[in-house]
Amino acid sequence: MSARNDSNANGESERQPTSESEHQSPSTSGRGPSRDLLRSDRTFDFSGPKQVWQGFGRDFKELTRRDRQFEFMIRAKDLELDVRHGPILYLEGLNVSFDGFKAIDELTLYVDAGELRCVIGPNGAGKTTMMDIITGKTRPDSGTAFFGQKIDLLKLSEPEIAEVGIGRKFQKPTVFEHHSVFENLELAMAADKRVFPTLFAKLSGAQRDRIDEVLQTIGLTEQVHREAGALSHGQKQWLEIGMLLMQDPHLLLVDEPVAGMTHQEMERTAELLTSLAGRHSVVVVEHDMDFVRSIAKRVTVLHQGSVLAEGSMDEVQNDPRVIEVYLGE
User: Fold this and answer.
1) 44, 101, 111, 139: least CB-packed within 10 angstroms?
2) Least confident of 138-152, 192-206, 259-273, 298-312
3) HSE-CB of 160 using CA atoms within 13 angstroms
């Protein structure tokens, strides 16, 4: 027997098998890939795809429910106002810049349901911009604004925000001066404002009762048939507040209501706003400290776009920061 050479007859080196598997071909191993799949004892796991299809079926069933309402299909006026946790207004971390000027800077503010809140601060403090954000006139660069727990104000347009129950009275009264007080309230009433319903609409007994109620609230019962243009400045302000009340808002934003009023008109306005608290939430922006003191239980002071101080009128008046930037002016 001759010794085994490391080279074959051609002088080429033979590669030795590196494992037992290389000694066996599919035919000699007795088990190839296809034969392994056909084994009688082979089981397959289809639980993964089955779970996927089951999940798809549940999602499809949920999507096709008759009572299912998609967010984009819900009208603004049908959104539910949730105030179970107390606040009706949540402003958190709001920021707004205009051409590099920081009008609102990390503003966080909460207003409770039924509360009368006064907001004060020097010119440029961000009071008007804050109200613009709440009513949808200005969109913040960042932050959140919620009406109750569920209604995201930043997803709604200005008309939609009015529909969910937020009304705003600007500093200068905007009434229909050539119409009577009654007609102003009638025009402001929450109703179908399309052309044909408006042309052929007739006031119901309940609507007339509502107008009479608002007239009594704002103190203009005796001026019901008088043209709005003939009213005093204070009476026009009350009429505009009455026009807001005809919309039955949950939250009223009132901007400098006593500017230009007589002392007697200021007292009547204070009585009106305090009478609304509880039935409505009211946010009043005002510079007149005597007027604020007469109506406020809680005051928020804004400065450079953020909350500088908050508390009772006495607490705010005695705050050194408030005295320095505002009351000391």
Assistant:
1) 44
2) 192-206
3) 15
For 149-176, what is each residue's pLDDT tens digit? 999 999 999 999 999 999 999 888 889 9
For the chain, strand residue ranges (E) read 87-98, 101-112, 116-120, 142-147, 151-152, 166-169, 251-255, 281-285, 298-303, 306-311
| Neighbour order of strands in the sheet with 101-112 | 101-112, 87-98, 142-147, 151-152
Strand partners, 282: 116, 252
pLDDT confidence bin for 22, thresholds 50/70/90: very low
CA 276 to CA 283: how far, in whole Å? 11
Tokens of 236: 């026009």
CA distance 138 to 115: 24
**DSSP secondary structure string for all residues of 64-84:** T-TT---GGGS-GGGS----T
Q: Model-level pTM?
A: 0.74
Q: Which position has the token pair 């066996």?
A: 24
Name the fold adopted by 76-327.
Rossmann fold (3.40.50)
pLDDT tens string 266-286? 999 999 999 999 999 999 999
Neighbours of 199 (CB within 10 A): 7
Which amino acid is residue 83, in one-letter code? V
Asked if residues 153 and 136 have their Cβ atoms less than 8 Å apart, the reply is: yes
DSSP class of 228: G
Judge whether 224 and 180 are in contact, CB under 8 Å. Answer: yes
